[in-house]
């Protein structure tokens, strides 16, 4: 069968073309990708050609939030079989460096990450992937939910690193897909009260429907970062004691990171989950220093897929409502164009392939 794919070129064009179908090598499986979520990083690679040091130097198939079905197993693969439904963990580390040896494989300098040049991603019908880096899905987790495991894993890593506490306040900056997942996960973790911020009122309205117990705050563009931060603090109570111990910053926008620093209480943690500009010049350094605020970062995830799958399978989290639009694989270009314009009101857009693929 044909293998339609969506590629980005080095000169910022989108191409929908037929990609070659590769045979699985030793230790690999050949998958039919059934669902791929579109991430803001896909849009950045299309529009800008780079995120930090990650540069698209030639054509590359996009996509890294994916699930699918095993069509064929390569030599040496014994724990998967044809027909298994799986989620794809897109980063394949070297397994040899000191970071891999330490179990922190997400910091491997030689990781091969799907959808980041030169490693082709999941926005295609057929894709080979190392069997060790796919995870079997339970029967009650759909392909669409399987595609949400990647952004959920990002959030899981951030929450694990931040260390949320039962009954303690958390603020979430940004009501995009990552922020909304962080909101739901913080609620499931027992954090309360919860405040979520955004500049777009429609996203805040969705957040309130998604987690009714949360309080929403529309960022006031007439205020500076300190002004917005202090206004967010007041939503938790008049005394700083009740201000959030943790702020999950899910936008990567410099002004939002600065706002988070003023919103968190002294001695608290700002957990930077969002991906931002390579250089930020306006962080309130002395405020962060004098208040002993911990500014922490994550890079993707490690050992999060099993627990993320358990959260969905066990009903701890229900993320199905985040999927606002679906497009067939042959219309993947339209899906990316929709996501690129935030005025369209999309939350999470999936590219799905409902064809019963054969070899």
TrEMBL record:
Gene Ontology terms, MF aspect: D-xylulose reductase activity; L-iditol 2-dehydrogenase (NAD+) activity; zinc ion binding
Protein's UniProt keywords contain Oxidoreductase: yes
Cofactor annotation comment: Binds 1 or 2 Zn(2+) ions per subunit.
Recorded family membership: Belongs to the zinc-containing alcohol dehydrogenase family.
Cofactor: Zn(2+)
Record PROSITE patterns: ADH_ZINC
Domain of life: Eukaryota
Gene3D superfamilies linked: Medium-chain alcohol dehydrogenases, catalytic domain, NAD(P)-binding Rossmann-like Domain
Biological processes, Gene Ontology terms: D-xylose metabolic process; L-arabinose catabolic process to D-xylulose 5-phosphate; sorbitol catabolic process
Protein's name in the database: D-xylulose reductase
Occurrences of domain Enoyl reductase (ER) (ranges): 15-351
Matching Pfam families: ADH_N, ADH_zinc_N
Catalytic activity annotation: xylitol + NAD(+) = D-xylulose + NADH + H(+)
Functional description taken from the UniProt entry: Xylitol dehydrogenase which catalyzes the conversion of xylitol to D-xylulose. Xylose is a major component of hemicelluloses such as xylan. Most fungi utilize D-xylose via three enzymatic reactions, xylose reductase (XR), xylitol dehydrogenase (XDH), and xylulokinase, to form xylulose 5-phosphate, which enters pentose phosphate pathway.
Keywords: Carbohydrate metabolism, Metal-binding, NAD, Oxidoreductase, Xylose metabolism, Zinc
EC number, as in UniProt: 1.1.1.9
Pathway: Carbohydrate degradation; L-arabinose degradation via L-arabinitol; D-xylulose 5-phosphate from L-arabinose (fungal route): step 4/5
Enzyme class: oxidoreductase
């Amino acid at each position: 069968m044909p293998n339609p794919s969506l590629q980005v070129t080095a000169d910022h064009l989108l191409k929908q073309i037929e990609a070659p179908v590769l045979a699985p090598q030793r230790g690999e499986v050949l998958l039919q990708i059934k669902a791929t979520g579109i991430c803001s990083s896909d849009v950045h690679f299309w529009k800008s050609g780079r995120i930090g040091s990650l540069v698209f130097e030639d054509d590359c198939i996009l996509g890294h939030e994916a699930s699918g079905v095993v069509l064929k197993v390569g030599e040496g693969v014994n724990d998967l079989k044809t027909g298994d439904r799986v989620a794809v963990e897109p980063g394949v580390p070297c397994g040899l460096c000191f970071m891999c040896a330490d179990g922190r494989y997400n910091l491997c300098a030689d990781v091969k990450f799907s959808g980041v040049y030169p490693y082709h991603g999941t926005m295609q019908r057929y894709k080979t992937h190392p069997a060790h880096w796919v995870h079997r899905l339970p029967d009650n987790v759909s392909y669409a939910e399987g595609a949400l495991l990647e952004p959920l894993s990002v959030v899981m890593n951030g929450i694990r690193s931040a260390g949320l506490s039962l009954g303690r306040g958390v603020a979430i900056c940004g009501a995009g897909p990552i922020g909304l997942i962080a909101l739901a996960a913080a609620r499931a973790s027992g954090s309360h009260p919860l405040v979520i911020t955004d500049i777009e009122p429609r996203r805040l309205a969705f957040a309130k429907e998604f987690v009714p117990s949360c309080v929403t705050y529309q960022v006031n563009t007439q205020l500076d970062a300190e002004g917005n931060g202090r206004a967010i603090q007041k939503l938790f109570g008049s005394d700083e004691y009740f201000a959030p111990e943790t702020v999950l910053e899910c936008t990567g926008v410099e002004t939002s990171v600065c706002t988070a620093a003023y919103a968190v209480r002294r001695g608290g943690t700002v957990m930077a989950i969002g991906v931002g500009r390579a250089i930020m010049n306006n962080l309130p350094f002395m405020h962060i220093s004098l208040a002993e605020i911990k500014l922490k970062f994550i890079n993707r995830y490690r050992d999060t897929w099993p627990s993320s799958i358990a959260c969905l399978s066990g009903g701890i989290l229900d993320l199905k409502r985040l999927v606002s639009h679906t497009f067939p694989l042959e219309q993947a270009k339209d899906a990316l164009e929709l996501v690129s314009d935030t005025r369209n009101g999309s939350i999470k857009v999936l590219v799905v392939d409902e064809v019963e693929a054969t070899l």
